[in-house]
Amino acid sequence: MRRIASHLALLPTGIVDRPLLTLDGRRIVSIGRYGDGELDRMEGIEFYAGILIPGMVDAHCHLELSYLRGAIAPGGGFAAFAAGMARERGRFSDVERFEAMRRADRELWEGGIDAVGDIANGGTSFAVKAASRIRYRTFAEVFGLRTASTEQAAALLGNPATSATPHSTYSLQDDIFKSICRDGNRAPLSIHFMETPAEQELYDGHGALHDWYLTQGFECDFLHYGSPAERVAASVPRDRSVLLIHCCCVGQRDIDIIMEHFTAPVYWVLCPRSNGYISGLAPDTGLLRRNGLNVCVGTDSLASNSSLSMLDEMKALGDVPLDELLTWATRNGAAALGMGDSLGSIEEGRECGLCAISGIDYANMRLTEASRLQRIA
Length: 377
Fold this sequence. Notes:
This protein is an alpha/beta fold. Helix content is 31%, strand content 24%. The termini are close together. The model has no long low-confidence stretch (mean pLDDT 97).
């Protein structure tokens, strides 16, 4: 047994001071609080400065792209990033790709992450995930305006905790998009959503994405919906949960359309450092907070990020109260991936992981640039 104490802890009821936890391996046996001077009289207490939190949940990652770390220059915009992906993909061997995924999986674990919502376009990542200490929920992604079948994604569905999802509202024609969204599997969907202004501009008949599709000879049969939000609302059953990824260009009307449609939970997943790496755009956290939305956090991939640090993602989200920010990275992510009954919150009987974050601004209850994370269990 281990007895763990700290200045603060994030519990389901909020942030509490003077927590005292008993652990048996990774299982939380008891949760209490210590009194003034009490720790001095106890033996074997492990004290960690800062705040104790459960293992975090990375709600959006592309583990299979880990081999592209540093291969694509930052700041070129979405079109340049896509071109870089196409250019660099063929330069790496299968061994290099596998080793990069193993390193990334270890980086995720050491960074305090207990579960990941992972995107897969092929089968390369499943061997790494099968051997990992992390719980992976895999979304087998379907994309391509000339794609007429889900055959490639269907080949992945025999892997544990794996289901099909459309890539985005701009990369699939109408029939196949609706088919994936309306199939009998009630697993959540994970849809890239409003990452750039070009997504809405496509529906308006102009912009970079619209112009590129013209040069490639692509025709879109879904523009009559009028917007990405309206397409999601018209295509996804209201009782099917969905993760909307990136959300940099979401406005109030988009939120209204989505939230008026769904009865199942909707999760708004932010990957701010990836957005900064590619385009310099940032999600409007104030807008999401004012609407009381279920916000989650992701790292995206090492193709568009310098690391897979959830702590650094939280720092990049700006002036958000600490309890909200930590809830986004823990309990909300676990709920989004269907793991809310076992991960994401410190509760007796759970094996939810345990981390400590130091360098807290206690006066304002915010993270700082000096904040650091240590995995405890």
